[in-house]
Specification:
Rossmann fold; 7 strands; seven-stranded mixed beta sheet; alpha/beta
């Protein structure tokens, strides 16, 4: 592991700042879990109504109670933003944006592309970027990596890139975020 990786590991094991792009049924539970674990979380969402709801201490998904969101917002552990600029100082940035199916039943990755372009503008050495949106194999390497490396930073040397498939079962009382195994695949 290089010195950039060692420093990132140290920050992640201490009190990290985590950015979550997309505060829907995948992103909000993830943001809440990170904040409850002690991280400072900045949630980014383009939907003004969703941002206002979360910032006021209310949940936008049935899996997370208003009380949990309210406590995290009140403590300052969970903040909300309308763009990625506040993620410039994040240790990890997790992309949890929608991938609706198009007419041909293929995932529309335009939200992933936009989020990645936004992240590329603020990406700095020592950050971890994780794609957690549902998509087809190869999206991390073929879509994210070239966009994120466009400004001269290199995966594995300057920043780190991973994919973690969405593992949410909305509304399930049995299979909750906390009990579902987390799978993460990194790239070098």
């Amino acid at each position: 592991m290089n010195s950039v990786g060692s420093e990132l590991k140290r920050r992640l094991l201490a009190t990290p700042t985590v950015g979550v792009i997309g505060l829907g049924y995948v992103g909000l539970p993830l943001a809440v879990a990170f904040a409850e674990s002690g991280a400072t979380v900045v949630g980014v969402d383009l939907d003004a109504r969703r941002r206002e709801t979360v910032a006021s201490g209310s949940s936008v998904t049935e899996d997370i109670t208003n009380d949990r969101v309210r406590a995290l917002v009140s403590s300052g552990r969970l903040r909300v933003a309308g763009d990625v600029e506040p993620l410039r100082d994040a240790d990890a940035i997790i992309i949890c944006v929608p991938t609706p199916l198009g007419k041909s039943r293929q995932p529309d990755i335009s939200y992933i592309e936009r989020a990645t372009e936004d992240v590329a503008q603020i990406l700095r050495p020592g950050q971890l970027v994780v794609l957690e949106s549902t998509t087809y194999p190869g999206t991390t390497q073929g879509v994210l990596r070239p966009r994120l490396e466009r400004n001269g930073l290199v995966v594995g040397r300057d920043f780190f890139l991973a994919f973690s498939p969405e593992r949410i079962d909305p509304g399930s009382r049995t299979h909750r975020l906390e009990s579902i195994a987390k799978v993460v695949g990194g790239t070098m």
